[in-house]
Structures are given as C-alpha cells and as structure tokens.
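User: Can you predict the 3D structure for this chain?
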Amino acid sequence: MTHEILIAGFGGQGVLSMGKILAYSGLMDGKEVSWMPSYGPEQRGGTANVTVILSDERISSPILNEYDIAIILNQPSMDKFESRVKKGGILIYDSYGIHKPLKRDDIDIYRINAMDTATELNMSKTFNMLVLGGLLKIVPMVSLESVMKGLKKTLPERHYKLLPANEEAIRKGMEIIRKT
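Assistant: Here is the predicted structure, written as structure tokens:
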C-alpha cells in the first residue's frame, strides 16, 4: 500500500519535523520512504510544507501533484492545497487555523482541535504530535512503537525527557480527531 501525504502550515508548527518523524517511522516499519520538505527563507512564521510517501513498493518519484492525504494547519495552505487532495482522499485540518468553509464534498474531511488542546493541556510544544496522533487514528500506516523510535531518532539526546509527553500527545490526538 502507498500513502502520498502532504503536511502544510506555517513554519514553527512542527510541519517539517512531523513529516520527518513519519518518514523515520516508515523506515522502522520496513517501508520505502520519500521525505521532501519545502519552505520559504523565513521558515518560522512563513509557509512550510512537506511531502511524505510511505510505500510497500519502490517509489518512482517524490514529486506529486495530488495527494491521498493532506494535513492542513493554516488558511493559506488550505487555499493552496485543498483542491490537490485526490477524489476519495482524506483532508485533516486544525480548527484553529482555518477560517473559511471547506469546498470539497468528494473527500473525507476530519477536524482536529490540536491547537486548542495543546493550549488547554499546556503542551504547546507537542501540537504536531497531537496532529500526528489524529492521522494515525484515521490511517494507521505506521506503528506507535515505530513513531516513538522515529521521534527518538529526530530529537537531540538532551530532549529525550520529552518523549513521554510526545507519546501522550499522540494518544490524545487519536482521541480528539473527528470526522466532519
């Protein structure tokens, strides 16, 4: 099975690191993986997106025009990428960053209140892990064990103490995602 995923938002939301963790998780599960980030020179506060492909077969190209799954965390990204989700695909969005109604009725749409939950639980640094948990609830493409190994691979050793909070955020994200 192949999953072609776009994650898009503002720099500083953990978009690129979420993609990297997902890619490492795929490697840990023995999948073929592509990770292709894209961001402006300003990075934090500017637009950022990453394409991740996880597949049981070889990946022919990391360049995609359409996606099976899009995780969209702000309105400019929604305006740019909503139309690029394949018919029958999945769109996940954070309710905090989207202000216009979605236009599609040919895809499955899920809302996750990740920013509100992160603020409420005083876990702002785990916002992206809440979103990742929501994705894995809808499409369990990698195991939680592999995600934790991937997270450990991406975090500097001095931040290993944050691993339990990140796992808690992933599990919480699995609880709070809702189909609209």
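The chain is about 35% helix and 25% strand. The chain has one domain: 2-179.
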